[in-house]
Batch of 3 targets.
Target 1
Amino acid sequence: MTEQKPKTINTELIYYMFDEIKLELREMKKDYVTKAESAALKNEIGELRNEIEALKKSRNLIGWLYPTASAAFSAIVTYLLLEFFRTHK
């Protein structure tokens, strides 16, 4: 015996199922990133990398400049002290 399929389809049931499927798809889409969001994130990451590189370069400059200026200042103060003691003997 084979079961016979009904010839008429319950349209309300089909619409209900479509609505359920649409809701599930909306919920699933919330977990994914769109192409536009992905491109925006990629650009932002690129900009952040450029900023980090700029900070590293400025840090290297300050890292070199600060000790050099400190050494020059110490040399000048030492010279002035020596000259002061030499002239006030």
Target 2
Amino acid sequence: METRTFKSKQTELFEGEYNIFLPNMDKNYPLLIYLHGYKSEYIPPETMKDQIPDGLIENAKECNFILACPLCPFGFYWRTTFVLSFVKHIIKTNKVDESKIFLCGTSMGAYGTWATAHEFPDRFAGIAPVSGGVYEISQYQAHRFKHLPVWAFHNRGDEIIRCEDSEIMINSINKEGGSAKITIYDEDSHDADKTFKNKELYKWFNSIK
């Protein structure tokens, strides 16, 4: 047997659609990325705009955030490199305060939020996964989040994604010395999108240094 090393470069080209909501753009602004949940068919951006959770656009506008909402390619899932490439595109084409980039998402979008922040924890100032769990990551990799502010949200009686998945991850992050927290609603449905009406979430984003 021989032991060897290798070096290789891989380049991917990503294309996609998105909705964006902009403040006056007279200076650099915080950026909030929202990843939507699973869709069983392609939905154009014009229609997707109407499916953005209530309160998200209004509160982002009130806080002078750039709100960018990409569409996950149909038949796809939220790949971490796709999300990061989208973030880079928004930075390149808008006036973004790169110290204030936040990531949030619902259901499948929350899985994408967890996964992307796990792979690129230094890219984000804070994350807010809603009604989501984890795929390839687990509590044994919680140390990746210990310097990243995390606020998760879940319904106690979620019949699609277990609330316990979020609780385990939050507890594991804090055991590693992190500052993660979770809000659990006493409801028996999957949809916890009322989170985005909560002004405290946006105050929390703004409080992160």
Target 3
Amino acid sequence: MSQSAKQLSRSVICAAAALLVGTTPTRAQSAPVFSPTSPVYREVTDETGRSVRIPQPVRRIVSLAPSLTETVYALGLQDRLVGDTEFCDYPPDAQKKTKVGGAINPSLEQIAALHPDLVLVTKGLNRLETVHALDNLGIPSYATDPHTVNDIIASSKQLADLFGVPEAGTSVAAEMEHQLAALQKRLASSYTKRVLFVVWHQPLISVGKHTFIADALRYAGAVSIVDAEQDWPHVSLEEAAHLHPDYLVFAASHSETSPPGLEALSTLPGWSMLGAVINRRYAVISDAVNRPAPRIVAAIEELARQLHPDAFVEKTENPNDKTIKEKMEKEKNEKDKNERTLPPPVQPPHSATFLPVTVHGNLPTPGGRACDR
């Protein structure tokens, strides 16, 4: 083929290509291409203010805190929980989940191997470095940060919504609110007890006023004697003795970390100064009070029962009250019977109307106050 023929051929090909490009529909160039397997993401803001992109639906969850594991179970989503920490021990079934290490230093390799859609963390326990490391691996994490019992209820609802089961969150929240309302009704007339919540005894560590534990104490009819801004303040025994708590409160979990017995405490330097130690006024409750999860309501009631036992005694009817009521009922029946047998009244002259005079005696009244619970 001659040189001129080759140039002509190339010109024809270029012209044809240009024609094809020019006639290609514009919308085809800009139309997005979707893969059937492309994930759908939801943009949310967690409780620390972080913006997080979470794939939908969330089918695989890793929990890095015992409280979050408990919440997942409370929502009925345990089948989606593919991993948790060594300290996630409630409910017992949680111990069977794949362990990814501790809450402070979890194994990123083990987490990644589980291919989670979402990792749950809590600001009060997990480290920010862990969150950043997960971000670098492209694994989204959602953080909770409850400071009150109401915050715990709200977190449960938010997580349920995040997982696509809002009705479960509504149900859990409603049950918690119902139990707390019933408890407050019982304690309405009870005197608030001043307590020292013992997180650790050597050195003495308690809870600050902005923690969910301090708020839980209030729901149990108690108030912490420690008025500190720090979440976990150190308290001197001299200061504790001066504040004179009505009760010491301990949270017990495993036998190796159970609070010391009162006898052991009384032998420690300084503890003998506390009137609550001398008079054996202390309460030991479930460690559920340490976990911002739905089970905290049970721990609150457990503490309330120990601090205010009288509020949980179901009042029975006084035998004297029953005798008096029976006597009054008998007199009423006799009176009704007599009135039915009397002849009809005779109209006096001059159309005057005389009403029968009824003498009201001082009848005994039932003793005691009606039970308002």
